Structures are given as structure tokens and as C-alpha cells.
Amino acid sequence: MKFRAIIEVGLKKGIVDPESETVKRTLLDLNFSVLAVRTRKIYEITIESGSEREAESTVRAMCTRLLANPTKDEFNFEVEAIGSSSATN
Fold it and tell me: The domain spanning residue 20 has which CATH number?
């Protein structure tokens, strides 16, 4: 079965995020009333797996082994089965 995982990775609270600070400062300079900015990476990954539970386990392993640094990052994800349609995006 094919599964699509949407994975979101970002810095843990309390970790300095220079990119977010720059975006916030620039938005304020453009007269937007911004209180906070946090940047995050989003990965969309399609995998082959025997079950949803197995797919979730695989995605969690991807996050802990490569996509997220446990010292500074937090992550969350959703996994959904996708049809066998031949159309791709």
C-alpha cells in the first residue's frame, strides 16, 4: 500500500531562530502587526508500506534518524493511505 506522510519539523521552544527573527523584524518594518514568527520545514513523502501502523513507524524512524535533530528540533506528522491512481503531482 502507498502512504503519504506530511512531516513538520521546527525548532523547539527556547531555541534561537535567526530566520524567524529576521522575518518578524521585516514584517514589522512593513507595518504588519506581528507578535511572533516561527519557521518550520514541511516534508511530503510517499512510501510503500504493509500497513498504516508500519508506515507511521517508518516515518517516525525517518524523523529521528535524519529529518529532525533531537537536540534542537521537534516534529509531528500525519500518515494517510493514498489510492493507486496513476496521476502524480
Answer: 3.30.1280.10
